[in-house]
Amino acid sequence: MHDYLHADYSAATNATSDDNGWVVTGGAAYTIDAWSFGLQGLYAEYQQSALNGVPLAPGFHADNQIFWGASLNGAYALGPGISLEGQVAYTASNYGNVSFGPFGASVPVPAAVGVNSSKVHSFELDLGTAINF
Questions:
Q1: Using CA atoms, how far apart are residues 79 and 106, in angstroms rounded to an integer?
Q2: Where do the structural domains in the chain lie, given as residue ranges?
């Protein structure tokens, strides 16, 4: 994503107009009889040269934001158009640090934007049904 803030990827508030990012995703699925299984993953990295939309002062720099996740999915067809579905997923993110100069002190980016932790870990367990007409 070239200049991702201008490309309407505005969810990242630590961007200026010329920051870039990239995302890679992949997955695979296999179906046997009424069962379906899938595995998918995501890795993303975004430049950040601002805090809450305000560019960093000269001499300061910020590490890239990094996100990654993986999930294992399953489904069982109960009948035509009706299935029971489940997922187990893990997602992690690292918002990086802001530092000044080559030997400056390093401060977690979220501390500067009001978030308590520079790293987030999320576990997810889903169960539901799907009805398709």
A1: 57
A2: 21-131
Three-class secondary structure assignment of the chain: CCCCCCCCCCCCCCCCCCCCEEEEEEEEEEEECCEEEEEEEEEEEECCCEECCEECCCCEEECCEEEEEEEEEEEEEEECCEEEEEEEEEEEEECCEEEECCCCCEEEHHHHHCCCCCEEEEEEEEEEEEECC
Q: Is 71 left (phi over 0), alpha (psi -120 to 50) or beta?
A: beta
The Cα–Cα gap between 131 and 125 comes to 20
Widest Cα–Cα separation across the chain? 63
Instruction: Tell me the pLDDT tens digit for each residue of 19-51.
Output: 777 889 999 999 999 999 999 999 998 877 766
